Amino acid sequence: MSTLTGKKSTSLTEKPEFRIGSVLAYITLGVTTFLVVFPFWWMLVVASNEKNEIAKNPPRFIIGDQLPVTFDVIFQYANISRAIAISFIISISMAVSHIFFCTFAGYAFAKLKFKGQKQFFAFILLTMMVPGQLGIIPMYILVTRLGWNNDLKAIIVPGLVSAFGVFWMRQSISAVITDEVIQAARIDGASPWQIYTKIVFPLVRPTALVMGLFSFLGAWNDFLWPMLILDGDKMLTVQMAIAQMKEQAYIVNHAAQMGAAFFATLPLIILFFLVSKQLVKGVMEGAIKG
């Protein structure tokens, strides 16, 4: 009886704790969801209301009737769809190049032996300490001499590879792949390229995919370098298009900016959901193989 009562008393004390934990978990999820969704809702609210409605205190949080007018402005006059297409070309090119070049360079520094290996890697690490803004003027002079002004090559080529990406992939390959695996592949007659494509890249694919996502986001949100090298009247990225949403020379069209920002965010959300499935699948495959 004492054992039974002991079990009953334990179950009675555990149930309230479980319920409280569940309630707190749902509250936390609800607050997090609200904080994530509210900026997108606010974009639509600002894009669909007049300035006087938004300037009220408290402001209006309901979608108005000006949304079709705003969408007509950003698609017909600002041509946001072309700016999104240009940004997508730049971002996807840099993401794919980062995945290939950084992974291959990381594999070389981690598993291949060549003269000056440590010195080259140390030099790459040193470049990470230099602010990117210091290289804008020399890069602009170089791009101008090459005749790449107002050309997408001027944006894509300097961003094909990054020092941080090489460092990140080198560390990941060193931690995931042992020297014994590489040596066994060499004994079987595999070339360095076969080792990279058949062994190295499949094992570090989740890490490379995350690095590619970061590269895509960085290229998509970049504003300073495209503004310097591209002609805003003929070719512009999505960030440049959002910045040019003005009614007059110095009057910002907040409704058009918010509408353009909403459409500029949609590709990122869609891409995240598409790639996240592949990312989870890659992580699970790596866990099963390990």
Task: Explain what you see.
The protein is an all-alpha fold. It has 13 helices and no strands. Helix 3 crosses helix 13, helix 4 packs across helix 8 and helix 10 packs antiparallel against helix 13. The N terminus and C terminus are likely disordered.
Secondary-structure content class: mainly alpha
The succession of helices and strands, N to C, reads: HHHHHHHHHHHHH
Taking all residues together, what is the mean pLDDT? 81
Number of strands: 0
Shape label: globular
Task: Outline the low-pLDDT stretches.
Answer: 1-13, 285-290
Largest sheet: none
Helix content: over 70%
Cα(first) to Cα(last) distance is 49 Å
Radius of gyration: 26 Å
Supply the key terms.
mainly alpha; 13 helices; 290 residues; disordered N terminus
Topology:
Blueprint: H1 2-47, H2 51-54, H3 67-77, H4 80-111, H5 117-127, H6 136-146, H7 153-156, H8 163-176, H9 179-187, H10 192-221, H11 224-229, H12 238-243, H13 254-289
Helix pairs in contact: 1-13, 3-13, 4-8, 4-10, 5-8, 8-10, 10-13
Characterize this entry briefly:
This protein has helices at residues 2-47, 51-54, 67-77, 80-111, 117-127, 136-146, 153-156, 163-176, 179-187, 192-221, 224-229, 238-243, 254-289. By secondary structure, the chain is an all-alpha fold. Helix 4 (80-111) runs antiparallel to helix 10.
